[in-house]
Amino acid sequence: MIETNAFEVLIKNPSAFLVASSLGICVNFLSYLVIQATSSLTMKVLGIVRSIATIILGAMIYKETITVNEGFGYIIALIGFATYNAAKSGFFEKANNNNNNNNNTAPIKASVSDDNDEEKGLLLIELENKNLTSPKNRR
Asked: Does 86 share its domain with 120?
């Protein structure tokens, strides 16, 4: 950098470098706040969407070509983003609950009992409003 006089650009344009560095610091703080409000995975997904938007805008503005393979990859990433947001908002759980209600089936919850007066490994099954347990001596 010293041999190519790269520091002259910095000396000639200090305000541009101060603005750029200030914006970089703001992006870091905003990223921190997004992670605190959501999750690091959400931040990662938003970063991917931002990259895709940058590539698409660059292709449109600078008339760059996007190969079929690249376009297919961007479509897969966008589908993943949409699926992640739908799952995060509970869309698939709501759809699953609607299917369960239509079939008139009760949800089953199973757990292994560790009670001292019962044999270890006894499987307890809870149906929606009933507690059913196997007899102690059943094998």
From this structure: no
Residue type for position 93: E
- Cα of first residue to Cα of last residue in the chain, in angstroms, is 79
- In this prediction, the residues of the chain whose per-residue pLDDT falls under 50 are 113, 116-134, 137-139
Q: Which of 68, 18, 80 is nearest to 10 (CA)?
A: 18
At 111 the three-state DSSP class reads strand
Q: Specify whether 48 is located in the same domain as 67.
A: yes
pTM over 0.90: no
**Number of structural domains found in the chain:** 3
- Give pLDDT tens digits for 89-113: 788 887 666 665 555 555 555 555 4
